[in-house]
Specification:
The complex is a heterodimer of chains A (about 190) and B (about 325).
Chain A lengths: L1 E2 L8 E4 L2 E11 L7 E8 L5 E7 L3 E4 L2 E11 L3 E5 L6 E5 H4 L11 E7 L2 E6 L3 E8 L13 E6 L4 E5 L7 E5 L4 E6 L1
Chain B lengths: L15 H20 L3 E2 L5 E2 L11 E3 L2 E3 L4 H9 L5 E8 L11 E10 L3 H16 L5 E4 H8 L9 H7 L10 H20 L2 E8 L8 E2 L5 E9 L2 E8 L4 H17 L9 H9 L4 E7 H9 L16
Parallel strand pairs in B: 1-5, 7-8
Antiparallel strand pairs in B: 2-4, 3-4, 5-6, 6-12, 8-10, 9-10, 10-11, 11-12
Classes of the chains: A mainly beta (about 190), B alpha+beta (about 325).
């Protein structure tokens, strides 16, 4: 159990029998009055965000949640299939559970799958992924304006902005948290 | 909760510029009191007893407690006839950490024997002008402020109405005091922040009079004020309670409440009660959070921004 002042950003908690991750926690207290912690939490199953307030005598359960490294196998359009590389055990996630991570999913690569009470509920991409550019217009010759960019489509279907010198067929490193191009990769 | 920035944790969270401003403003505060013939004093940080408060957990250490304010020791000096005194010191409140809270912070506290609370409020306004160069605060009663900014009467509105005004459904089991505390941080402070400027709130509910005199009313209120600047709670002042028996009753009651709330019961400061028995002159006193004053002066958003090493770097 967690006391109200142990509620921190990033902590995963169980509230109303559902798992949530704390995305913001604020300690508030009038000088002589009671302390409260206001938290903003994101549901790990359906992604909805709500707010809750706890008083100082309240406690909150930690969510029975763990992250497991799993390999992405394939998507059949309805489910996204992952495999535990040690046990070969497979799990399937729905489109909603995969969410935006679908933009960064490359077959055979490893991802963190979140399990709640041993059931897969979400998948988190690594902070950086390396992907092929499958479509990108050539840069205009002589255009050296610094900071200029153009759209590029990646093998996963994600469209990102890349500098003009980057071309179709090259590989790039992308920050999955911001969706931004980082550098060319080999 | 108060992760300050990305820099390595050995490094200070405040810039050199900020610490220079900090030193300068603390000098201005000393100057202000020296010009008014108020004596600077130093009282013990480590105490064997405390003045128990219902919602404040003292920092416990091997030989006693680190003081949460120098209040009782300073009032002992006033009772001893040492006149007007001020102190700037580090104080400690266990578990209080957030954007506006650090478990250890700098307090300015001063006492004016012979003064009424209204006179002290004028002096608090003068100090504010001296540091922030802002006009004197306006004054509202606690009740008026809630009526004006929240649309409820904290003393009389039904509990269901108080509950409905909270932006997020309140936790279960809050009494009137709890709901009003929550509305204060959830609705009143944001409204004051939006409006800007400085404000005194006075005539606090008597359900927690702490060490202030009580006016029997109606409504029955504690003769207490708080000063807010841009929605930030900055100072808390009292017309000081002088009745030793009444003070002792309140301490015992607070310990009873702490027991019900599942908190540690605290040893009571008998030296302080003896000083009251000896006789405390009619007196007004106030405590002001120096770090928050510095935040306002330097337009910083987090208390950690004005401290060399906030709790996550201490």
């Amino acid at each position: 159990m967690l006391n109200h002042n142990q509620l921190r950003q990033g902590t995963r908690v169980e509230i109303d029998n559902l798992p949530w991750i704390i995305i913001d926690a604020q300690f508030v207290k009038p000088g002589k009055g009671q302390a409260f912690t206001k938290i903003k939490i994101k549901n790990l199953v359906d992604g909805r965000v709500i707010e809750r307030t706890f008083k100082s005598s309240d406690s909150v359960s930690k969510a029975d949640v763990m992250d497991k490294t799993m390999q992405f196998l394939y998507s059949d359009g309805e489910f996204w299939h992952f495999m535990d590389p040690d046990s070969y055990e497979q799990v399937a996630l729905t489109e909603k559970q995969v969410g935006n991570t679908t933009l960064w999913l490359r077959e055979q690569e490893n991802y963190e799958v979140t399990l709640w009470k041993d059931k897969a509920i979400a998948v988190i991409p690594p902070p950086f992924v390396i992907l092929d550019i499958t479509k990108c217009d050539p840069g205009i010759k002589g255009d050296t304006v610094s900071g200029a960019s153009k759209p590029a489509t990646l093998e996963t279907g994600a469209v990102i902005k890349v500098p003009l010198f980057v071309n179709e067929g090259e590989r790039v490193r992308v920050d999955t948290r911001t969706g931004q191009y980082v550098e060319r990769a080999k | 909760m108060t992760t300050t920035s990305q820099s390595p944790l050995w490094q200070p969270s405040a810039s050199l510029e900020t610490l220079k401003s900090r030193a300068h403003i603390i000098n201005l505060i000393r100057q202000f009191f020296q010009n008014r013939d108020v004596l600077e004093v130093t009282t013990p940080v480590l105490l064997s007893t405390v003045a128990p408060e219902r919602y404040q957990n003292p920092q416990v250490c091997d030989n006693g407690f680190l003081h949460s304010s120098p209040e009782t020791a300073m009032k002992r000096l006033v009772a001893a006839g040492y006149g007007s005194i001020f102190q700037i010191c580090q104080v400690f409140r266990a578990d209080e950490a957030g954007v506006m809270h650090n478990p250890e912070f700098t307090m300015l506290e001063w006492y004016r024997p012979g003064w009424a609370m209204a006179d002290l409020m004028v002096e608090v306004g003068d100090l504010l002008q001296h540091i922030l160069n802002c006009p004197p605060p306006i004054t509202l009663t606690f009740c008026q402020a809630f009526q004006k900014y929240v649309g409820i009467d904290p003393f009389l509105s039904p509990l269901s109405e108080l509950s409905e005004k909270v932006s997020v459904p309140p936790p279960d089991g809050l009494d009137r005091g709890g709901l009003v505390d929550l509305l204060l941080v959830d609705r009143l402070e944001p409204a004051l922040k939006k409006q800007g400027g400085s404000l005194f709130l006075l005539d606090y509910p008597a359900w927690d009079p702490a060490m202030a005199e009580v006016d029997p009313g109606p409504p029955k209120v504690a003769k207490r004020f708080e000063m807010y600047v841009d929605g930030v709670e900055l100072a808390n002042g009292y017309q000081e309670l002088r009745d030793a028996d009444e003070q002792n009753r309140r301490f015992l009651q607070v310990n009873q409440q702490r027991k019900q709330d599942g908190r540690q019961q605290l040893p009571i400061d008998n030296h302080f009660l003896d000083a009251l028995k000896h006789g405390l002159p009619r007196c007004a006193g106030v405590a002001l959070g120096v770090d928050r004053l510095l935040m306002l002066a330097m337009k910083k958003n987090r208390i950690a921004d004005v401290m060399a090493f906030p709790v996550d770097r201490a």
